[in-house]
Design brief:
Radius of gyration: 23 Å
Number of strands: 4
Length: 312
Amino acid sequence: MNRVRNVLIAAREQGRFLLEALLDARHNANNFAINESSYLGSVEPSTNETQLTKDYHRVEKGLALRNTKRPFGSVVRSRLVYGLENSSGEHDFQRYAQDALIALDEWNNHGIKSDIVAPRVAYPLSQEAAGAAKDLLQSRRSVRDFDSREVEEGTLLEAFTLAANAPSVCNRQPWKAHFTTDRSVVTDVLRLQNGNAGFRSEVPALVVVSVDSRLFSGAMERNQQWIDGGIFAMSLVTALESTGLSSCMLNCSMRRGEMEAVSRRLSFEASEQVVVMIAVGYAADGLRVARSERRLPPAIGRRISSSVSHMQ
């Protein structure tokens, strides 16, 4: 009997995996931009923004190389021209695309690299800046005990601005950071997250990180939204720490129905994908934290050498 029961339980769990995968696929199919191979001929606004951003960043990357080919980017140029001709309104990405188009022509025609799209910068960091970054990374802890101080909107916006320096695929910056200090909203949303019951009533502010799925394209990018959203969220908790705020990441390992309930409560757009929630506030005096020892030695994979890296 136990064996039959275990088989039935496994089958039910596999069915849940399949259902959630299909629901995720439906969200992506309904919201992702079309692949660039089908771009010419499309004038859908979000697809246009996605493709122009990908292509102007390709020019920026190309001109940032030490040994840039000349000429390069003929297909990219065609898409930039098409996208700009079919853009409406006034948006930053259009200006950046126009800058890239001009820079590409300057390089291909005259061998001149643009200081606008590929500026020179000083590296590495100063010892002072590197030391401050090291101290910040080593001292950050997940905090679940906050004092009663109010979290100011201006402080959150400062952290959001700092976190926006996080890298993203082709510089598409798909993230959004929504925040609330409304007690009823904080409580309603946290009830949908599994893991905060012991300190829910003490959370002064809640940040929900989402990404706009319309800024991704094609089946190969189906997981990129989680990667970009996660990178931004990690940058955000570090930025919050730099402003004096503490935080605790709260996973959003939810079924699609629960995730949509969060989106409805926060009035998200249908194209938004919830990535993570972050409890935010000022750490209480004398608080305790989970030990959370790091694995020693660190989880480092084996060294790859030419003798073992024969990739077929």
